[in-house]
Design a protein that fits this description.
Length: about 450
């Protein structure tokens, strides 16, 4: 029978489920979601699912209700407790369920929460999430027999697996900022075991995030880490997002090394062992990524933004590495192909430990003059309509290539411009890069002209 509460249709996003607690997400919904996932698991031949949760105040009750719903639906549950999202993925791979849910609001404000889901070895996204929404809203039936409940320590095998894989050439002094997110439950122990002297910032897990927001994509959230690295003997600073699947990096001089530049470093390293292989990057990344991959003997492949979409492309192509501008990095070489900010941090230190001056290595990575992600806020439904018109009616004279795999990206001999509709909020995301400030301004002007011709009422953020 159908659910009897206000069902949160809008919480079902392109890559996961996300919403405010308790108005959208609450234990009653979580239980129904568990039953819906159980029905889907049975149809896929899955008998057991892993569940882990972040450090938010609402996460224990949501995780408990979710698992109850799964068991009511006849599926066995393995509870891995309060862990970063990558450890849920790790458990799903190593415990051979291929299926699991991380209860997490990631980097959203404290009153949010959400569910990141994988089933049968793949991440649920797009149409699969919309179909799940309709199935859960219809009210999945109870199973004839209940599933069993077990709990497992996944941290010990995770640490053993990472430490068996990553080796530093020398001990390093680092600072880590977990922003009171759940990465704080693992990162200090992991990096000390790796051979680092660790200065901790905000590593106590606290779902109210009392110090700053756990989102390294915002430069303001890196100010404490920069100050720490600049005023101590630390060689480098690492920052993690709310659920530990994204990494931020700062150097001794206070420079932020954005994820597309980090990807160049990882690609050069991976291609020494995987010559000629494909490296995947998303449409928001610098032009320098493709150039560097080719120079290192690899095959660059640009793809759509979204961790679920990148993961699917990684599986399809067999590529050893993929990365997004948002900070999700996916190592398939030596690892499992899921996004893991903690493991990515370890791989970064493995490379940097070969140098006496890690900051110099990072700051020497190629970069253009670029903007951060700029957001044009619009009403629900407007962004996708605007981008569709831009794709069909926009004219970008002088562009060497106009790509439409995810919004519209115009590449020029000296830069690029991008406009795409966000899949999570009603905004158009814009990003620009030029070899010089003049090139950047010229490319922005080209996009300004086209966007205002199609939507003269908007106030552009550039």
């Amino acid at each position: 029978m159908p659910v009897n509460y206000s069902f949160p249709h809008s919480a079902f996003k392109a890559y996961d489920i996300r919403g405010i607690v308790p108005s959208a997400l609450n234990p009653e919904f979580a239980k129904d979601l568990g039953r819906g996932l159980a029905a889907r698991a049975k149809a896929a031949g899955v008998t057991t699912m892993v569940v882990g949760r972040d450090g938010r105040i609402s996460s224990p009750s949501l995780a408990a209700a979710l698992q109850q719903g799964m068991r009511d639906g006849g599926i066995n549950t393995i509870d891995v407790g309060e862990v970063p999202t990558p450890l849920v993925y790790f458990a799903a791979y190593t415990l051979k369920t291929g299926s699991g849910v991380a209860v997490t609001g990631s980097h959203n404000p404290p009153d949010y929460n959400g569910f990141k889901m994988m089933m049968g070895g793949g991440t649920l996204h797009g149409e699969a999430i919309l179909a799940l929404r309709d199935e859960v809203a219809a009210g999945p039936a109870h199973a004839n027999a209940s599933g069993t409940a077990t709990s497992v320590d996944i941290l010990t095998p995770y640490l053993a697996r990472v430490l068996g894989d990553v080796k530093l050439s020398r001990p390093m002094k680092i600072a880590i900022d977990c922003g009171n997110g759940v990465a704080g439950a693992v990162a200090p122990q992991l990096f000390r075991a790796l051979g680092c002297e660790v200065t901790e910032l905000f590593c106590e897990v606290d779902g109210t995030f009392p110090n700053h927001h756990p989102d390294p994509a915002d430069p303001h959230n890196l100010e404490d880490l920069i100050r720490c690295v600049q005023t101590t003997e630390c060689e480098i600073g690492l920052a993690f997002d709310g659920d530990g699947d994204r990494l931020g990096v700062v150097t001794k001089s206070g420079e932020i090394i954005w994820p597309d530049r980090q990807l160049i470093l990882y690609a050069r390293d991976v291609l020494t062992r995987c010559p000629g292989e494909t490296i995947i990057y998303d449409v928001k990344c610098s032009r320098h990524v493709a150039v560097a991959i080719r120079e290192a003997g690899g095959m660059p492949l640009m793809w759509q933004t979204g961790h679920s979409l990148i993961k699917a492309k990684l599986a399809e192509t067999g590529a050893p590495l993929a990365g997004e501008m948002s900070g999700h990095v996916f190592f398939k070489e030596r690892w499992f192909g899921f996004d893991d900010g903690l493991y990515t941090g370890c791989r970064l230190l493995e490379i940097l430990s070969r140098s006496a001056n890690p900051s110099a290595v990072l700051e020497a990575l190629p970069q253009g003059v670029s903007t951060p992600e700029l957001k044009l806020e619009m009403s629900e439904g407007e962004p996708h309509a605007l981008i569709k018109r831009l794709q069909t009616e926009g004219v970008f004279a002088g562009a060497t290539e106009v790509l439409k795999i995810d919004g519209l990206r115009a590449d020029y001999p000296d830069g690029f411009g991008l406009a795409r509709a966000s899949n999570t909020t009603p905004v158009v995301v814009l990003r620009f890069e030029g070899d010089t400030p003049e090139a950047l301004v010229r490319i922005q002007d080209a996009f300004r002209k086209q966007l205002l011709a199609l939507a003269p009422h908007v106030t552009l953020p550039f």
